[in-house]
């Protein structure tokens, strides 16, 4: 049947004005695009993620997968679902999480990390300095000579501590001394690349008879792991040289011993100076370390001891031999390691020798004759006896002549890492320290 001319004219006009209408009727609506969201986008292998999906076939069944792990889901009448999935180990940094229902699928990335407790932004204690600006000075062929305050390998194991307030927190440090029966001779401090040299902290520690283990982090706190402005090749290219010289000159003028650990835990993937992140690549860390060392040393800062401090090696960490700057650029080496116990979904209880044994062996092979520090350590209470673990740790380290320091991470963060997370744990450390003094 032919339409009257006026009606055909009206329909034609509507088709132009409203593309969803055709001469044959109303066009079918397009299906919603499927998508999924993860409640967390990063974490270690073993993390349980909750996945929310939209736009899937209504009341349809599907499968959620990540690597070899999978879980079923069923969408609601609106195409919505929520399901949980455990992230597996992977040789790749990013593990795709995928939801499939019939011919409809969607994916989202999950980034594997093996985070250290100190990876979260510490509270700043010195007002940020002016942002660093460009420069290009480079000093080549520098060598390093260990300052005299570093103990010889035959000396007793030193006790150090990191507390939330750092070297200026007298009450925290007094508490530690009361708990352990010993004033710490090493005090941890953290600074990012926007902060001025912490001379007040260094002097406060010195007045207590201690030296600062100064952690210098090439990033901006709170900015996450993707910070191209702080990429390693920018450091090596000299973009931060004025800032590096500012630190070197200030430390040189202060003139007293300081242990400087630049870009610690570099073999992990939770900081932007990892070669696995932040547009960095193989060889970039060593080049950046040497450049920072050379610029600071060129200012006459002979009182600085350079401490190269990876995390204990773990499955998937970067090989230490690819990150070591060389004997002439390092005064001492160190390891960070924590017994997470069963405090996290991915962790298990490990003994001190299980935690540190492999790393110590690798450090001795890479840096023969260098003394070794434990830059950060502690244990969770969950999964075993923290008191027994603490006693075992001090005895294990004190028996090794090249391990010259133990620094306790006295924080209540992911779990209670503090010395006094329990009375038994505090008593154990106090007694172990007394025993190693003879």
Order of helices and strands: HEEEEEEEEEEEHEHEHHEHEEHEHEH
Mean pLDDT across all amino acids: 86
Please list the strands of the largest sheet in the order they lie side by side. 11-12-13-14-15-16-17-18
User: What characterizes the major β-sheet?
Assistant: 8 strands, parallel, barrel
Give the number of helices.
Answer: 9
Q: Class by helix and strand content?
A: alpha/beta
- Work out the helicity level: 10-25%
Our measurement of the CA-to-CA distance between the termini, rounded to an integer number of angstroms, reads 109 Å
Rg from C-alpha positions?
28 Å
Question: What percent of residues are in strands?
Answer: 15-25%
Q: Uncertain segments of ≥5 residues (pLDDT<50)? A: 10-30, 121-149, 151-155
Principal-axes shape call:
globular
**Tally of DSSP β-strands:** 18
List keywords for this structure.
single chain; 438 residues; alpha/beta; globular; five-stranded mixed sheet
Please give a quick description of this structure.
The protein has 438 residues and is an alpha/beta fold. The protein is built from 9 helices and 18 strands.
Q: How would you describe the overall organization of this protein?
A:
With 438 residues, the protein is α/β, with parallel strands linked by helices. It contains nine helices and 18 strands. The strands form four sheets. Strands 11-12-13-14-15-16-17-18 form an eight-stranded parallel beta barrel, surrounded by four helices. Strands 4-10-9-6-7 form a five-stranded mixed beta sheet, with no helix packed on it. Helix 2 links the parallel strand 11 and strand 12. Helix 5 packs across helix 6 and helix 8 runs parallel beside helix 9. The chain is globular and about 70 Å long. The chain starts with a helix and ends with a helix. About 13% of the residues have low confidence.
